[in-house]
């Protein structure tokens, strides 16, 4: 008799163990936040943790889709994590709802229930996520009450303005730097022709263009004065090398300058002086070339 009782007890223990081992869902938990104190626009996060035996596949189509659940509740985010455990699979489902209900007083609401489906070897198993109740309250009372002559509720504060002064300072500094760089480039490339630096050959070029063909002495004097003004003192042919060291841009006109000084010496110090349109045009061209260099165009 005692042996039979022991045998029955062992059979019961083994049957209970085998049933727990073969249980398709070994763990099921729904984690929810506080059930009170929500207002319109708040988010409510819900987590569902499920552990199943190996091979039990969750049917993702059974999870509610993102979007409008009811006229006042939206499902905004769905996150599903799947991992292996020692005995099977673990699913973690994070759902983020958003509330759009504006009650006139404290009101009880609920997140609707839904059913999760699992499948293995053609067999389907369902697990229901129960509905969850919570309370929501209005943002403020319908009327502002007064108590002992003081307002029960303070008026809404004005929206603080953003401090734009740092941005304005940075913008002003950027514009100032841009203007300085622009002015430097304009000076470098000869755009600022009204500056004294760009006035040396401007007037001589106009005078030479108006000179008559036979007025060779006047044309030579105009060109010599312009070169002397640039050099800061009288410039002669033998001083061209030092002149180029101070004004290297004019070295490209070395051939024309050498011809000019030779031609000027022949006119002033030789009896074989001649004046024709070709030589006069070369003097005008030399002055124009100097003007182009002065303005940074050569």
Q: Could you please describe the fold and organization of this structure?
A:
There is one protein chain. A hairpin with a 2-residue loop joins β4 and β5. Residues 13-21 have low confidence and may be disordered. α3 (202-210) packs antiparallel against α7 (277-294). The protein is an alpha+beta fold and 298 residues long. It has 2 domains: 24-136, Immunoglobulin-like; 196-294, no CATH class. Strands 1-2-6-5-4 form a 5-stranded antiparallel β-sheet, with no helix packed on it. The chain has 7 helices and 12 strands. It has helices at residues 2-21, 165-188, 202-210, 216-231, 240-246, 254-269, 277-294, and strands at residues 25-31, 43-53, 57-58, 67-70, 73-84, 88-99, 107-111, 114-120, 123-129, 132-136, 146-147, 150-151.
Residue runs with pLDDT of under 50 for 5 or more positions: 13-21
Q: Widest sheet: strand order? A: 1-2-6-5-4
* Shape designation: rod-shaped
What letter string, H or E per element, gives the SSE order? HEEEEEEEEEEEEHHHHHH
Rg over CA atoms:
49 Å
CATH class categorisation of the largest domain:
Mainly Beta
Strand content: 25-35%
Largest sheet: 5 strands, antiparallel
User: Could you report the average pLDDT, rounded to the nearest whole number?
Assistant: 82
CATH architecture title of the largest domain: Sandwich
Residue share in helix? 25-40%
Tally of separate domains: 2
Q: DSSP helix count? A: 7
Q: What's the number of extended β-strand segments?
A: 12
């Amino acid at each position: 008799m005692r042996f039979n009782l022991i045998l029955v007890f062992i059979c019961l223990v083994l049957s209970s163990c085998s049933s727990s081992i073969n249980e398709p869902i070994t763990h099921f938990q729904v984690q929810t936040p506080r059930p009170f104190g929500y207002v319109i626009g708040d988010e409510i996060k819900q987590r569902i943790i499920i552990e199943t035996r190996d091979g039990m596949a969750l049917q993702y189509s059974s999870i509610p889709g993102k979007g409008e659940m009811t006229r006042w509740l939206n499902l905004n985010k769905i996150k599903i994590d799947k991992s292996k455990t020692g005995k099977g699979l673990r699913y973690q489902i994070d759902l983020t709802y958003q509330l759009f209900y504006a009650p006139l007083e404290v009101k009880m609401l609920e997140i609707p229930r839904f059913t999760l489906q699992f499948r293995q070897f053609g067999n389907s198993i369902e697990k229901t996520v129960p509905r969850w109740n919570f309370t929501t309250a209005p943002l403020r009372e319908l009327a502002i009450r007064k108590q002992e002559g003081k307002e029960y509720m303070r008026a809404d504060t004005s929206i603080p303005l953003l401090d734009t002064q740092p941005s304005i300072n940075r913008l002003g500094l950027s514009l100032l730097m841009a203007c300085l760089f622009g002015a430097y480039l304009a000076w470098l490339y000869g755009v600022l022709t009204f500056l004294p630096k760009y006035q040396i050959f401007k007037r001589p070029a106009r005078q030479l263009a108006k000179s008559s063909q036979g007025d060779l002495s006047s044309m030579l004097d105009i060109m010599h004065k312009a070169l002397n003004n640039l050099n800061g003192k009288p410039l002669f042919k033998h001083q061209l090398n030092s002149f180029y060291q101070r004004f290297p841009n004019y070295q490209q006109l070395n051939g024309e300058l050498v011809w000019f000084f030779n031609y000027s010496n022949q006119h002033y110090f030789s009896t074989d002086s001649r004046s024709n349109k070709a030589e006069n045009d070369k003097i005008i061209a030399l002055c124009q070339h100097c003007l182009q260099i002065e303005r940074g165009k050569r």
